[in-house]
Every structure is written in structure tokens, then in C-alpha cells.
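Page 37, continued from 36.
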């Protein structure tokens, strides 16, 4: 009997995912453990392995489909001795292929092509669709430019979606001598007003095409402002939801401290000169100092829950990494028991796989405390948003030379400002200050981190 392959739940919170790519095609032999497809979750792109053996009889959800619900059939596997006739008996025909596709970017499958040509043929018939009777379809910006230049829109061939006239078309007509005397467009003005309203109302229709790379000039709002639409990825939607929840539900307060880095920079340079097996960064020292400070002040290594405060045994430090799709926080687990070289190498590996979308769920889900470092961008100081259910996040600024007072005299030192964002339900001000004091002492005496 044919076996349905379902959209898997690749994390505890996953309710839907995007089918990024099929690595097997219909008719291919499938063995247990073979990689079938790549699924994009809200944080990473993960491979899906086959559990059963057989032949891939039918792909129900095409590559590029978005918002496919967990447990939705995405393909049908035929067992040994079964042929395509078994698909109809099992209900694995074309109707299922269309249901989960949603707004996927992939082209329709061959069985679905029969009803598709009729609606598709009309807009593709000819750019003349920009003119329907006395009505001219043009963007608001194109209308305004045409009116100013005296260009008759009825004589302009549109290159926008469905033959719509856009700014570039008007400019081309103007350059080609297509301008008419001013009275001509004025005469058409009464008909232009009704046309503008339907054009504006229809504007959302072509927006999904932006994902396919349609030029930005094809889109403009009613004020004539051009834009390109970038559809929200699953990751971006998750980031927006979680950060909104964090600011709405977590009572943040902030504590800032300045740390002197001169000694740390000397120790770092000396250690990096001793071996090629590692390349320590200031961020590696920060992660190590955070972990050791959490061991000294365990009350800061906690999270809020309705049942009670969760007191963590290990310092699992989440480190913010920027990726093309958004922010992700891979975790250095039990960082208090790892040396600087191990933290450095582990962080480089996690950051690379984070940018490639290859992290496993357990490598970015969880964590007891977060670090966000924008110092490499020259940011002096900022306040980060807490990553629930964690109780704290440390925002690290750039190390820069500043004038300070030392022993009653002015001096120049390399200083770094760090701001601790704290969930007041979990950590009180005194505890947050105690943690920062412990962190500052470690950063300014980096040799103590090596013990």
C-alpha cells in the first residue's frame, strides 16, 4: 500500500514550514536514511530523511511551496511491486498537490496545467491590456509624469505587470517625441480619475511577483513612491512575533557599565601569537567572562515561568549572529567549563552554519543568557531586547579609546560599554549590578579567565 510522506515537525514549536527543495524526483528509488528534501523552518533549513523504502511515486507539494502545515502529505512512496495505479486508490492524485502549495513560488505541476492556461493567457496576451476601452491602466507616478510632460497615455505601450504603464514607459515616450500638446491629456483627465481608483485597488495583486525578481519600478503607491516587495520569510515572521511579545510582556530595565580593555587586548595578542589552532576575538573573552560571572552570580542565570523561576545549573550562552534572513542565536553550551580556544572554535563553526542555515534545532533553541555584540560595527552603546524566556541579555559595544580619570589624573584607555537588559520579574536591580561587577572584574583581569 502506498505510504504518505508527511511534512515533519522539525522543532517543538513548528506548525508549518516551507518546502525549499526536493533532492529526489518522481520515480527515484528511496532507501531508509536517504535525504528526500530540504525544509525551511522558522530558524534554519533542515534535511528530511526517508524512514521507509520504496519508489517516489508522486510529489504532492512542489519545491518552493510556503506555509505547508505540519503533517500535510507532501509525497507518496510506492512499495515494492506497486505501480502508479496504486496512487489513485490511495488518493495520491493531483488534487492534493495543489492544496498545500499556498503561495509557493514554484510553477504548477503538469496535471494542474489544464485549467491554468485560461486565466494566465489573458494577462500575457499583449501589453495592450493596459488599455480597456477608454480606461488606461497606469501607475499614479506614470500618470503624473505624463500629465506634466504632455504625453498621451493611450499612445504608450506599458511594460509593467499585465501591460500596466509605469514611469519608464512615460520617460521612453517622452524621449521618443511622444509628447502631445497639453490640452490632449487634459481632455482625458475626467476619465483618468475613475481609472486611478481601480488601479490603486488592484495594486496588491501583482505584489507576490516581487519574489520572482520583478523590477522595483513596476511598483508604486498612490503617492508615486517606488518600492520592491520582499516577502517575509518564516524566520522574519518568528522574529517579529517573539520581539513583539518580549516588549509587550517582559518588564525590561537596563544597567550599563564601562570596562577597560587594554590588558585584555595585550593578553589576546599574546595568546593569538602562540598558536595557529585558534584566533581569539574580544567576543570570545566576553562569552567566557559572561559564563564565569553567571557561576559567581547564579541568580542572574534564571528565567521566568508561571510556575516559578527556573534556576539553571549551566551557563548556556546564546550569541546573536546576523544572517541574510534575520537574527539567530546559536548556543555555547556549558560555557563555564570551556576554555577560550574551545569557545572560539565552537563559535566560528556555529556562526558559519547559522549563516548557511544549517544549524540543528538543539543548537539554537534554549540557552540561559544571551550576548549581542555590535562592537564590530562601531556601535558604542545600545540596549538589546530580551530573548524570552531568558531573564537577561548583554549588549556589547565597541572598544574605543576614551579620556578617563585614573588616580586623580587624566589618562587615555580603551573602554567598552556593556548594557544589561534585565527581566525584572526574574532578576532584581541589585542582582543585575552584582553580575555586571563580576563581569567587569573578569574582563579587566583576563588572566583570571585562564585559571
Amino acid at each position: 500500500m502506498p505510504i504518505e510522506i508527511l511534512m515533519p515537525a522539525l522543532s517543538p514549536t513548528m506548525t508549518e514550514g516551507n518546502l525549499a527543495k526536493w533532492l529526489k524526483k518522481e520515480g527515484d528509488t528511496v532507501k531508509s536514511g536517504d535525504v528526500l528534501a530540504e525544509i525551511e523552518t522558522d530558524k534554519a533549513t533542515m534535511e528530511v530523511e526517508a524512514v521507509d523504502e520504496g519508489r517516489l511515486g508522486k510529489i504532492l507539494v512542489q519545491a518552493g511551496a510556503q506555509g505547508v502545515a505540519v503533517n500535510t502529505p507532501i509525497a507518496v512512496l510506492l512499495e515494492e511491486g506497486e505501480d502508479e495505479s496504486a496512487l489513485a486508490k490511495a488518493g495520491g492524485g493531483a488534487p492534493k498537490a495543489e492544496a498545500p502549495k499556498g503561495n509557493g513560488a514554484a510553477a504548477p505541476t503538469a496535471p494542474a496545467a489544464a485549467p491554468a492556461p485560461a486565466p494566465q493567457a489573458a494577462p500575457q496576451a499583449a501589453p495592450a491590456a493596459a488599455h480597456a476601452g477608454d480606461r488606461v491602466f497606469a501607475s499614479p507616478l506614470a500618470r503624473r509624469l505624463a500629465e506634466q510632460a504632455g504625453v498621451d497615455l493611450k499612445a504608450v505601450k506599458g511594460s509593467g505587470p499585465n501591460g500596466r504603464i509605469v514611469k519608464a514607459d512615460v520617460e521612453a515616450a517622452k524621449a521618443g517625441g511622444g509628447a502631445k500638446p497639453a490640452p490632449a491629456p487634459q481632455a482625458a483627465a475626467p476619465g483618468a480619475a475613475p481609472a486611478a481608483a481601480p488601479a490603486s485597488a488592484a495594486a496588491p495583486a501583482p505584489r507576490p511577483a516581487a519574489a520572482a525578481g520583478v523590477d522595483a519600478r513596476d511598483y508604486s503607491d498612490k503617492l508615486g513612491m517606488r518600492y520592491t516587495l520582499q516577502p517575509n520569510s518564516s524566520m522574519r515572521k518568528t522574529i517579529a512575533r517573539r520581539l513583539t511579545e518580549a516588549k509587550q510582556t517582559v518588564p525590561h530595565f537596563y544597567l550599563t557599565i564601562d570596562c577597560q580593555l587594554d590588558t585584555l587586548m595585550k593578553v589576546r595578542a599574546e595568546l593569538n601569537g602562540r598558536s595557529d589552532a585558534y584566533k581569539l576575538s574580544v567576543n570570545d573573552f566576553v562569552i567566557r567572562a559572561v559564563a564565569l560571572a553567571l557561576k559567581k552570580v547564579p541568580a542572574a542565570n534564571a528565567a521566568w515561568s508561571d510556575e516559578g523561576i527556573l534556576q539553571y545549573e549551566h551557563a548556556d550562552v546564546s550569541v546573536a549572529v546576523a544572517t541574510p534572513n534575520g537574527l539567530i542565536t546559536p548556543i555555547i553550551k556549558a560555557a563555564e567549563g570551556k576554555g577560550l580556544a574551545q569557545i572560539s572554535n565552537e563559535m566560528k563553526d556555529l556562526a558559519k552554519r547559522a549563516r548557511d542555515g544549517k544549524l540543528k534545532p538543539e543548537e539554537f533553541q534554549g540557552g540561559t543568557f544571551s550576548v549581542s555584540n555590535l562592537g564590530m560595527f562601531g556601535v558604542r552603546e545600545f540596549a538589546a531586547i530580551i530573548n524570552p524566556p531568558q531573564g537577561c541579555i548583554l549588549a556589547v559595544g565597541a572598544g574605543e579609546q576614551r579620556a578617563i580619570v585614573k588616580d586623580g589624573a587624566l589618562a587615555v584607555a580603551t573602554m567598552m560599554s556593556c548594557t544589561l537588559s534585565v527581566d525584572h520579574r526574574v532578576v532584581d536591580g541589585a542582582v543585575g549590578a552584582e553580575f555586571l561587577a563580576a563581569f567587569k572584574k573578569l574582563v579587566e583581569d583576563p588572566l583570571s579567565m585562564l585559571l
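The first strand starts at residue 3 and ends at 6. Flag for discussion at group meeting. The chain has twelve helices and 20 strands.
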